[in-house]
Write a structure and sequence with these properties.
The structure is a single chain. This protein is an alpha/beta fold. The protein is built from 16 helices and 20 strands. The strands form 5 sheets. A 7-stranded mixed beta sheet has the order 12-13-14-11-10-16-17, sandwiched between helices. It has a 6-stranded mixed beta sheet with strand order 7-6-5-8-9-19, sandwiched between helices. Helix 1 crosses helix 7. It is globular and about 60 Å long. Bound molecules: nicotinamide-adenine-dinucleotide. Nicotinamide-adenine-dinucleotide binds next to helix 8 and helix 9. The site of nicotinamide-adenine-dinucleotide has 32 residues, from helix 8 and helix 9.
Length: 470
């Protein structure tokens, strides 16, 4: 069991190149992160390759037991992990944030551990006999982003280990300590060499991971442009890929809703993790007949949600994780204002204050093709677009190249389900947005990526299907 201090000490590098890490809420120095090289990566891949044979040869129930021990270890150090995550990523301890994320790591370890994937008998009759087995692929390379750094890393690591692969993970540069701490805690109980981490820049270490002929499968979560680069880099080796890429999720509100009742769900759908969530509600289309009431209730709810330094218990919204993302949000909102859109809440950051705080912002009466609508803002600024014709709203929801999630808000579930069938997205939620479950497959349509994580589909995605016939 770690305290915050002992965890930080355990991951602080004693040699090699390092980088200082600052709290995005206060700009205070919180620690130093290792910056590793392609040589370090190659050594880690060799280690993972060597460990894979024995790991795959273990009886399944022993791998399952190891994963439960890893979940126990995360639980034992949960508070230290949450504090480090809060200080490095910026997300508050409370609300659907740091403690919630560490709890998610435990759930997304135990559930895949307990999900069996036995072989299937495909045919067994006079025409023949054939079974489908799900074999390990070998070494899985994982590359994770900075928004939910621990939980997304777990989504990549655990199913891969469950299926008899070993893993080399490269975390995002700006949330290195969080993933390093998580892996360090899991490695208190996992066998040597099974789970490896290499830190360093995406363009060198990440790139080399995707080009390595020793990597059988890449699990990537991040932006669409980097996803496209990974497709090219991995093509010569025909490396298997699961790509969880960017999104710009639409929500469509029908005229029959109760505006007061849906305000809280709309708010958290859009502002969870201060808007830095792949499958957050990023553009909201509201029917003209309820537009003013929905906006009013949403603003009323939003203005009372406390934003501030993450380790202060009352806060449930935090800063942007890095200054570059602050600039993205700031410039999109400024451009929306200049276009004549109406700022119903926020939109007035203190650019000189410490930290990357951008206030909760809701922009009304905005053109459906404004950049704040069609670009992924990835921060706390929600555009609310007025519509009169449902077909037009569906057309607008579908017109972008991305399609991760979407939502329909209506008192009529059957009608909402019919609309869901017309929306191009990997998940369509009804009367909520963004909720995930470890047994329900998650992933994108169109340029939001391909492949699915979670559940039985997620286990199959990190296995090599093999038919044994005869
Ligand atoms: P990013 O693409 O900039 O970085 C993601 C990771 O890729 C980092 O670890 C980075 O170091 C690495 N990387 C960068 N260049 C690389 C290269 N050439 N080769 C290999 N690796 C490289 O993304 P980000 O800014 O960290 O995350 C935000 C984006 O991620 C948003 O677009 C968001 O929608 C998306 N995202 C998607 C999901 C999903 O499940 N679909 C989940 C979370 C975030």
């Amino acid at each position: 069991m770690h305290t915050y201090e002992s965890l930080l000490a355990a991951i602080t590098p004693t040699s090699g190149e390092t980088r200082e890490v600052f709290d995005p809420a206060t700009d205070e120095l919180i620690g130093t992160a290792p910056v590793q090289s392609v040589d370090d990566l190659n050594a880690a891949i060799d280690k993972a390759e060597a460990a894979q044979v024995a790991w795959a040869a273990l009886p399944d129930e022993e791998r399952v037991a190891y994963l439960h021990k890893a979940a126990d270890a995360i639980e034992a150090s949960a508070e230290a992990l949450a504090e480090l995550l809060s200080r490095e990523q910026g997300k508050p301890l409370n609300g659907p944030n740091a403690r919630f994320e560490v709890g998610g790591c435990v759930a997304w370890t135990r559930v895949p551990a307990d999900t069996p994937l036995p072989h299937e008998v495909l045919i067994d009759d006079e025409s023949g006999y054939a079974e489908m087995h799900y074999r390990p692929i070998g070494v899985v390379g994982a590359i994770s982003p900075w928004n939910w750094p621990m939980m997304i890393s777990i989504w990549q690591i655990v199913p891969a280990l469950r299926m008899g692969n070993t893993v080399v993970i490269k975390p995002a540069e700006t949330t290195t300590l969080s993933v390093l701490a998580l892996v360090t805690v899991m490695n208190q109980v996992l066998p040597e060499g099974v789970l490896n981490i290499v830190t360093g820049p995406g363009r060198t270490v990440g790139d080399a991971l995707t080009r390595s002929p020793k990597i059988g499968k890449i699990m990537f979560t991040g932006s669409t442009p980097v996803g496209k680069r990974i497709i090219e880099a991995s093509a010569p080796n025909v490396t298997r890929l699961t790509l969880e890429l960017g999104g710009n999720d639409a929500g469509i509100v029908l005229p029959d809703v109760d505006p007061a009742a849906i305000a809280e769900g709309l708010f958290w759908g859009a502002f969870i993790n201060t808007g830095q969530t792949c499958a957050a509600l990023k553009r909201l289309y509201v029917h003209d007949s309820v537009y003013d009431q929905v906006l009013e209730h949403l603003v009323e709810f939003a203005k009372n949600v406390p934003m501030g330094v993450g380790v202060e218990e009352q806060n449930v919204l935090g800063p942007l994780q890095n200054r570059a993302q602050f600039e993205v949000v700031d410039s999109l909102v400024e451009a929306a204002k200049a276009s004549g859109a109406r700022v119903a809440l926020g939109g007035n950051p203190d650019r000189e204050a410490p930290g990357n705080f951008y206030p909760t912002t809701i922009v009304a009466d905005i053109d459906p093709h404004n950049d704040l609508v069609v670009e992924e803002q990835f921060g706390p600024a929600l555009p609310v677009i007025r519509y009169t014709d449902l077909d037009e709203a569906i057309r607008l929801a579908n017109e972008l190249e991305v399609g991760l999630g979407a939502s329909v808000w209506s008192a009529d579930r059957a009608k909402a389900q019919q609309i869901a069938a017309r929306i191009q997205a990997g998940t369509v939620w009804i009367n909520s947005h963004g909720g995930l479950h470890p047994m329900v497959p998650f992933g994108g349509a169109k340029q939001s990526g391909y492949g699915r994580e979670f559940g039985v589909e997620g286990l199959k995605a990190v296995a090599e299907p093999q038919v044994v016939s005869g």
